[in-house]
Amino acid sequence: MGGYGSGRWYRWNDGKDTTEDSLPLDIRDLHRKGLLVPGGTFTSRWWRGENTAGGSSIGGVVGADHVLLQYSANGRPAQEKVPLDWTPCHYGGRRPWWKCPECARRAAVLYFARDHFRFLCRRCCDLAYPSQRERPHERARRKALAIRLRLGGSPNFFDPFPTCPKGMRLHTWWRLFREAHRHEMAWLAGLAAETDALCAHTDRLLATSGKLAGPS
User: Fold this and answer.
1) Spatial separation of the C-alpha atoms in residues 176 and 154, rounded to whole Å
2) Torsion angle in degrees (nearest 10) through CA of 187, 191, 194, 195
3) Helix, strand, or coil here: 151?
4) What is the pLDDT of residue 8?
């Protein structure tokens, strides 16, 4: 029950694709660059990290309430009309949103759905966030690390915990210290449990292989 390689073991590694595995189209980036002017056009490359996605490119013709996307991937041309929505900001101005062509939800980012060869929201692409594939003790480690870095400390857990930064109240620092300590203990406990389970599984494999080999 729950053996290594079955059940819940490493289910995180066999799940759905994440947003990092798909090509994003972020409307906030287009808005910051002033490219959402009706009647205007834009052309850009698809980038994922430091690499282009197979030499793919995307362009758009901006309308009053939509963007006509024109793109190609691996030499296959396509175009798609994606609706726009605008909402007022608290301190003036407006914020743009995509409206998913599939479900009509607002989304700041659309992702290229390879199965449908079109841009859809994260839900319609059935994508998870990378953090959703973390095991509990990995999530605890990430949270502890975030606190250390927030306080100006080192990412090395062997280094001393950072002292209270200038301008931070002491009771705030103590709260963060206790929170980081709790996450670090959860991380170490998870590592220990995983190591014990792996050792037990290895022992069972060795015992099974010995029985199969039989007496010499």
Assistant:
1) 15
2) -170
3) coil
4) 39
Mean pLDDT score of the chain: 82
pTM of the model: 0.55
Q: How far apart are CA 152 and CA 168, in angstroms?
A: 12
144 token code pair = 């502890």
Domain boundaries, given as residue ranges, for the chain: 24-46+54-121, 134-211
Read off the pLDDT of residues 157-177 as tens digits, 9 standing for 90 and up. 889 999 999 999 999 999 999
Give residues with Cβ within 8 angstroms of 63, minimum separation 6. Answer: 38, 39, 84
Phi-psi category of residue 134: left, alpha or beta, with phi > 0 → left and psi -120 to 50 → alpha: beta
Alpha carbon dihedral 21, 27, 29, 33, in 10-degree steps, equals 150
Q: Which residues of the chain have pLDDT under 50?
A: 1-14, 49-54
pLDDT of residue 178: 96
C-alpha distances in angstroms, 36 versus 26, 27, 60, 65, 86? 12, 9, 9, 10, 11
CB 130 within 8 A of CB 43: no
Q: In what order do the strands lie in the sheet with 24-26?
A: 24-26, 109-113, 118-120
Q: 207-216 burial, b if ≥16 CB within 10 A, otherwise e?
A: eeeeeeeeee
Main-chain phi, psi angles of 19, to 5 degrees: -60, -25
Token pair 């007022």 in the structure block, residue: 88
